[in-house]
């Protein structure tokens, strides 16, 4: 008995050894031929809807890159997961770098989760592209050398909408009531809004901090009416925006509703008859630019619906990362950082090229205010918005609408 | 002025409570009669909303908000006949597991049919805007919901108190063995109760579709508050659930008026206090089979 089992054991051992001799090198070779990219974005919760678009965008970019031969002859292996919440996001980011062998990290929409991933990136000395988080603090007091920020920050959104509102005479001397998402992003946006109101002689007469899981806004709307403002301003996020917009239309208040944050996904979810007002955006699928339109065509063909702004930002981020890896011929984080800090210019499908600003790693690019189309002029359910002119205006420097070093100081440790 | 504002929040809370009631009452009835904690109840709420949005594109909102709950109630027959029925006498943990699993299946099914992105619909123009009565402001649409909820409440109460159907159901809650000894099969009654319960949840979903985000996880969202209402109200008590739903709406409104940050926590504090003072809920009856 013993002899038999020992023989079996030996045979098994030999088989295993043989398998590893034959099999492992090929596995190692397969890994060496791929560039693994760790992607995290919220697919559930109040940001899950726009996170879904983000994932479609990054997948399309990876597919296109791989079909055209990959980067330096290597295929991209995209590992995309639900970031769920800040704590889980950090755990998954650590696992992706440590166990899955991700060369870089990319993604996220929640500013709170982005912050924890930024810390993981710094600890592991690996680059992280925060694609959709907008809190100024991430580029300011929480900044670090390994984190790059692709979406427009809160200050830019406030400036984009604020400028458009000023032109309509809706700011100076007006009473504002704000509704703010109660987490880092909302707090940060409110701070930027207060700075803007202060600089433009507007009065903030009331603010409500609202938990991210609130779906019924009626008690808050009663407080808005009790305050009798001139303008109501939405600093909410994700599904909150959709719910507010729908219920605001339901109550039919006379005060115009504007907002410093809106993603086209939230606008679509709110529906054509409910949305009104002036809002900011980083990109919209009707933007008249050949590169943007090529992306819209490819995305629509693949998924049967037009891309949302998070799909676009993820798409262009992976594309510019691929360009950087090709140019530097490296996936090494320190070489990539050195390259981006030279403020290399990238075509991101807008009139002007974009670049990562060296001192805070912010992707400096155009932004747009938009208003809502009258319902009878919409071609389809996606054609809801009218883009305003890009800000800053064509002759002004791009950085004009971004926070300055004094406004949002960032000190990166070497 | 401050007092009027507060009163306005109280009245608004009552309206909101009426809507919570649509979801919680069915949950409570199904538990009281069948002994099943239906974790899939939220799925029927979500289905009600989705079916309503889908039908609105063809038939308009008015017809859809009526048809959708009936369509979902028919689905409730299948749910009771092929799933719940096997678990009335089984270990409660099994029915918890099966309804929990079903809730996930339903959410994924919605995702597969309608996609992960929210679908949208809007209130008919005639119900938009608000009505000002004296110093109070009401959303016209929510007043409509309140009127419908009041009518349904009256109907369900009459059904349970004044009909032979109701007598059997009430007897079934307390003494199912006695009902059986009298030669009455409870199963057809249970089918009717499940139909009624999920139909009301679907009506809640249909009514709220135009004023909230209609997305696959909306069923899970509503379940927490529905459970809070049932727990506060107490099992087996019709009026307990009614009072609890209204109380939850009002307490949340008052909390948001004075201390917005405590708005969402307030209903859990209320639940905690009620359970501390009355572990069986406000008007909860002693139900022998659950003791």
Automatic annotation (TrEMBL), chain A:
It comes from the Bacteria. It holds the Pfam family Peripla_BP_6. The keyword Nucleotide-binding does not apply. InterPro entries: BCAA_transport (IPR051010), Leu-bd (IPR028081), Peripla_BP_I (IPR028082), TAT_signal (IPR006311). One of its GO terms (biological process) is amino acid transport. Residues 34-374 form the Leucine-binding protein domain. SUPFAM superfamilies: Periplasmic binding protein-like I. Keywords: Amino-acid transport, Signal, Transport. Belongs to the leucine-binding protein family. This is ABC transporter substrate-binding protein. It comes from Bradyrhizobium cajani.
TrEMBL record, chain B:
InterPro entries: ABC_transp_permease, BCAA_transport_permease. Belongs to the binding-protein-dependent transport system permease family. LivHM subfamily. This is Branched-chain amino acid ABC transporter permease. It is a multi-pass membrane protein. GO terms for cellular component: plasma membrane. It comes from Bradyrhizobium cajani. It is found in: Cell membrane. Keywords: Amino-acid transport, Cell membrane, Membrane, Transmembrane, Transmembrane helix, Transport. GO terms for molecular function: transmembrane transporter activity.
């Amino acid at each position: 008995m013993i002899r038999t089992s020992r023989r079996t054991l030996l045979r098994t051992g030999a088989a295993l050894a043989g398998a590893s001799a034959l099999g492992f090198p090929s596995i190692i070779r397969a890994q060496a031929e791929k560039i693994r990219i760790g992607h995290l974005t919220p697919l559930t919760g109040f940001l899950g809807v726009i996170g879904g678009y983000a994932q479609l965008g990054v997948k399309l970019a990876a597919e296109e890159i791989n079909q055209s031969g990959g980067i330096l002859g290597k295929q991209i292996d995209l590992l995309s997961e639900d970031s769920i919440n800040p704590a889980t996001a950090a755990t998954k980011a650590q696992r992706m770098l440590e166990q899955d062998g991700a060369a870089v990290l990319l993604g996220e929409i929640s500013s709170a989760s982005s912050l924890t991933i930024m810390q993981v990136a710094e600890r592991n000395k690996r680059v992280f592209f925060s694609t959709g988080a907008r809190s100024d603090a991430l580029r300011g007091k929480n900044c670090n050398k390994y984190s790059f920020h692709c979406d427009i920050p809160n200050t830019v959104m406030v400036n984009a909408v604020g400028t458009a509102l000023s032109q309509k005479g809706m700011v100076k001397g007006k009473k504002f009531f704000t509704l703010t998402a109660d987490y880092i992003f909302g707090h940060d946006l409110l701070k930027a809004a207060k700075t803007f109101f202060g600089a433009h002689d507007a009065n903030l007469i009331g603010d409500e901090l609202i938990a991210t899981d609130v779906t019924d806004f009626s008690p808050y709307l009663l407080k808005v009416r009790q305050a009798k403002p001139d303008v109501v301003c939405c600093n909410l996020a994700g599904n909150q925006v959709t719910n507010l917009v729908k219920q605001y239309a339901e109550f039919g208040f006379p005060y115009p509703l504007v907002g410093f944050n809106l993603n086209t996904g939230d606008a679509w979810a709110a529906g054509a008859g409910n949305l009104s007002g002036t809002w900011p955006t980083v990109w919209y699928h009707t933007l008249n630019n050949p590169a943007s339109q090529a992306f819209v065509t490819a995305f629509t063909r693949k998924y049967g619906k037009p891309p949302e702004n998070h799909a676009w930002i993820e798409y262009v981020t992976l594309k510019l990362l691929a360009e950087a890896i090709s140019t530097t011929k490296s996936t090494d984080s320190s070489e990539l950082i050195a390259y981006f800090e030279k403020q290399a210019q990238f075509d991101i499908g807008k009139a002007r090229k974009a670049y990562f600003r060296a001192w805070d790693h912010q992707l400096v690019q155009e932004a747009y205010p938009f208003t809502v189309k009258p319902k009878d002029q919409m071609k389809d359910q996606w054609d809801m918005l009218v883009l305003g002119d890009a800000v800053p205006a064509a002759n002004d420097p791009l950085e004009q609408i971004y926070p300055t070093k004094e406004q949002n100081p960032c000190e990166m440790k070497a | 002025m401050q007092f009027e504002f507060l009163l306005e929040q109280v009245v608004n809370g009552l309206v909101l409570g009426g809507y919570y009631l649509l979801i919680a009452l069915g949950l409570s009835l199904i538990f009281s009669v069948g002994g099943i904690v239906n974790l899939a109840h939220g799925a029927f709420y979500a289905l009600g909303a989705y079916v309503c949005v889908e039908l609105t594109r063809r038939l308009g909102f008015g017809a859809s908000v009526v048809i959708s709950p009936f369509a979902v109630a028919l689905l409730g027959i299948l749910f009771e006949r092929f799933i719940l029925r096997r678990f009335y006498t089984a270990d409660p943990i099994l029915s918890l597991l099966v309804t929990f699993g079903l809730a996930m299946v339903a959410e994924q099914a919605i995702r597969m049919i309608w996609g992960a992105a929210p679908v949208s619909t809007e209130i008919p123009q005639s119900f938009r805007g608000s009505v000002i009565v004296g110093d109070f402001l009401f959303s016209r649409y929510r007043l409509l919901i309140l009127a419908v909820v009041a009518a349904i409440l009256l109907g369900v109460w009459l059904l349970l108190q004044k009909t032979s159907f109701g007598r059997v159901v009430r007897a079934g809650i307390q003494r199912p063995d006695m009902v059986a000894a009298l030669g009455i099969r409870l199963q057809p009654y249970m089918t009717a109760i499940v139909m009624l319960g999920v139909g009301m949840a679907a009506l809640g979903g249909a009514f709220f579709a135009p004023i909230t985000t209609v997305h696959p996880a909306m069923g899970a969202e509503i379940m927490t508050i529905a459970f809070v209402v049932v727990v506060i109200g107490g099992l087996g008590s019709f009026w307990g659930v009614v009072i609890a739903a209204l109380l939850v709406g009002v307490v949340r409104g008052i909390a948001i008026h004075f201390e917005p940050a405590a708005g969402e926590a307030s209903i859990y504090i209320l639940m905690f206090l009620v359970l501390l003072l009355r572990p069986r809920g406000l008007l909860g009856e002693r139900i022998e089979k659950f003791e």
